[in-house]
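Here is the promised in-class demo. Please do not try to memorize the tokens; focus on the logic of going from shape to residues.
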């Protein structure tokens, strides 16, 4: 497997220097404290974390976690032990995309972009386009349940917003999907195509936002 973020010219290492992490831990745990850090060091830590996450067998991990798949002790898939995610972000993919990736000019979880949907829940997108707040972003590793999948459709329809997914990995199986006759199961990409959601992959969001299709969407959606 290869990472979707091009790390060819990066300064990342295969291992994280935990001494360096301990020195900056307080800044990582403090909301927006990462801005006080040396950005090259932060990028190196973030890229190393992404590589570690990319090595996880996510389909098997998700089956064990969300489908209660029974396995032997030595078959259990664990996520890697990583440094604390820079607050206020909730994952290293979120942090990397918002700090160093293609959403650097987008506000993270803007308070004025919370959209209500049925059953009186409030939907908080990961980010929104700075020009058209009706175009919102979701950074996802997996959509764990059918209820979660239906949520996005309801939110989009009831609030007149356009959700674009940024996927952490390719070909992740929907844990709630049933096997087809040929044994295959629906992937996130297939579900999004069926529901007419746009998506791109981690590391591609900047190029995606430069396409004519995206620019037209921002200029015309909701007007």
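The designed amino acids, position by position:
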């Amino acid at each position: 497997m290869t990472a979707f973020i091009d790390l060819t010219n990066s300064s990342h290492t295969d291992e994280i220097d935990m001494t360096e992490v301990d020195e900056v831990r307080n800044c990582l745990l403090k909301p927006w404290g990462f801005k006080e850090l040396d950005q090259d060091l932060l990028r190196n830590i973030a890229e190393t974390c992404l590589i570690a996450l990319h090595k996880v067998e996510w389909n098997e991990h998700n089956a064990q976690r969300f489908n209660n798949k029974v396995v032997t002790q030595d078959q259990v898939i664990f996520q890697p032990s990583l440094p604390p995610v820079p607050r206020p972000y909730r994952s290293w993919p979120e942090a990397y995309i918002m700090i160093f990736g293609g959403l650097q000019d987008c506000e993270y979880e803007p308070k004025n972009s919370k959209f209500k949907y049925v059953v009186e829940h409030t939907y908080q997108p990961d980010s929104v386009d700075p020009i058209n707040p009706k175009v919102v972003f979701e950074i996802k590793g997996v959509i764990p349940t059918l209820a979660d999948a239906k949520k996005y459709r309801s939110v989009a329809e009831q609030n007149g917003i356009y959700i674009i997914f940024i996927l952490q990995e390719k070909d992740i199986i929907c844990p709630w999907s049933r096997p087809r006759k040929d044994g295959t199961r629906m992937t996130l990409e297939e579900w999004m195509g069926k529901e007419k959601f746009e998506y791109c992959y981690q590391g591609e969001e900047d190029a995606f936002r430069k396409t004519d299709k995206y620019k037209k969407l921002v200029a015309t959606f909701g007007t």
